[in-house]
Known about the structure:
By secondary structure, the protein is an alpha+beta fold. 36% of the residues lie in helices and 13% in strands. The strands form two sheets. A six-stranded antiparallel sheet has the order 1-2-6-5-4-3. A two-stranded antiparallel ribbon has the order 7-8. It is elongated and about 55 Å long. It binds a DNA duplex through strand 3, strand 4 and helix 7.
Amino acid sequence: MDWELRTLLIELKEGREVTNQLMNHLHPTSSHQTRQLLLDKILCSYEKALSILNWNGFDVGTKPAVNAIESCRSIDHSSPGSEVSDKREVFKKRKTSSGLAEQVRVCSGASLDNPIDDGYCWRKYGQKAIHGSNFPRGYYRCTHRHSQGCLAIKQVQRSDNDPTNFEVKYKGRHTCNQASQFAGTFIPVPVESREKGNHSRKRQHQLDEKLEGLDNRNRKDVFPSFSFPFEPEAVKNDSFIDAIRENSVMGNLSPVFISPETSESNYFSVSPCCMGSFESDLTDIISDPTSVTNSPSEDLDFSSLDKLEFDPNFPFDNPEFFS
DNA sequence: GGAATTTGACCCGC
DNA sequence: GCGGGTCAAATTCC
């Protein structure tokens, strides 16, 4: 089974699951926003599935609905096997999107105080007003670009339709130590401690920017390594779901995951830059309740999370899936 | 003084 | 020519 088909199946399964959730919320006491959120997720799954078919040469006949796309927690545009190539051999030569591994993520529900947090240290190198967009686009590159030659970059732009949505485009892969830290043993770091210390640079103009749309706290975040049980059996374990739920409900967008017992043999970590769609899907699971937490529709039933199906035969150890 | 951000200018693709 | 991506000097903060 190839990568696209697997992703397609995941999306279809998720669509079915969210549809079931929506059915549970059809009673009059359920809030409209909750139902709208679930509808958006269903549309998101459809759009992702159609996009996959589209990429594989199927004429799906329709263009993705903008609202549906923006409702998606993540849309993976990674082109497997594509490598970062710094084309800036000529001064200020413009990089083209082709040839760059690109991943687009839409982080919804990120309040001004809870911005995108992907765990890497980024340095902002530019900001540009985008034609037709109310909010400027911020350009970030890895802090270790010069010291370690890390070529990872990202672009952050707030959605016009929903200012709580941040569209984050990742291009390139982290080759710095941060990436290896992600591959290491998980060290849980409380959110509070991550926001203190030398990463608490606050400026008045940054506060102003907050109001304008680009939150700056996503620029410098020290983010713990993320790992989860390697064995599918452990994935099915309630502790896994509970950990996700607990951390999600805490309102932290970061996939801070506290493992019961960290063991290198039982846990594996995946660098976000290399996770591809799986990371996106995992982020879906983790970030969705968060977005609910930050949204007015707080009555979303988390119990449905327990119904998520994890394929026991899922090839977690198959490197091809993450390429 | 070092590091990070801001911002105007430059460059390239379309 | 326009829009988007990047550079780099200036600025700001610790």
